[in-house]
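Justification of resources, computational component.

The compute hours requested in this renewal are based largely on the per-chain cost of generating structure records like the one below. Each record pairs the submitted sequence with a full structure-token output. That output is archived, and it is also reused by downstream analysis tasks.
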Amino acid sequence: MQTDLIAEARRQAEICNACRYCEGYCSVFPSLHANRAFSDGDITQLANLCHNCRGCYYACQYTAPHEFDLNLPQALAEVRQDSWEAFAYPQVIARNFQKSGGLIALATLIGFALLFAVARWAGQQGGEGFYAVMSHNMMVAIFAPAFLLPLVSIGYSLRRYWVSTDGRRVTLGDLRAAFGAAASMRNLAGGHGDGCNFEDEDRFSQARRMAHQMVLYGFLLCFASTSSGTVLHYVFDMPAPYGFWSLPKLLGVPGGVILTLGALWMLDLKRRADPELGAASAWGGEVGFIALLGFVAFSGVILYALGSTAAMPSLLALHLGAVLSFFLLTPYTKMAHGFYRMAALVRDAQRKRSD
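The structure output for this chain reads:
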């Protein structure tokens, strides 16, 4: 990790530790104030615990032009981004994605879509619905490794993070506290529950919290849809296609709509936010990931709506290309931040338990 980013974040954390004005703002400050000195691992933990709501910056009396020149949201965002890149495996892909995330996402999507368009002629078709275009066995052969290998990469990265932050044995109580905070997006509600100042310094808003919740629950519905289809296929011998009133469709259609709208909302909020309060070098990668995630959901909804038309084979290739790009790029995009955030919340639960 870059020592200059750690050193600057440590300088600012030490000043915040002496001031303590923002103690009730979010989980960062109780964790920060529990320390007298800050190791590299402590700074990394604080950075991943921070949700970049920016309320502390707008409340701070020591921001520029004060000589202390505090900008804690930016300092922690840069350490956070650097930690994701440093812990990722392989590291070179993560660093390149943050520099040119939009172009990489677009290139992989188009490339995989073209490969799927060609692969349909090499596969053995003969099924119904999508399987008339590409066989079930070919889809499984492609997507099973594409799903499992990124999980292995993320697991390796999280292990490095856990060692770096001196994580201890995890208890059920730690997991319960962390999942509760993540499910409610509690740290995006502000210290008094009025929301944060992400898009406007003078206005507290729950918009970012709600947009994140739409993305999270939309994604979980889509994942549940795919999982239910897998169970129906292998356990109950009920292969696709499924009707609208089937479990996969009842979960997947609303999930896709919610995820699409949530991604669009997040893009709008990021467009209106001050880039100087985040990791400026990661802006392209963040936008590229959100756009890719939204397109995965949108293309799935459009594919369902036009699945019985002549456009279906082309739409299927485009959707599968987007899904494959999303899976393979997950360890190197902001999707990984969800895993790191959970790890940071678990680590914070351990701190509270030991206090």
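The mean pLDDT is 83. The two ends are 29 Å apart (CA to CA).
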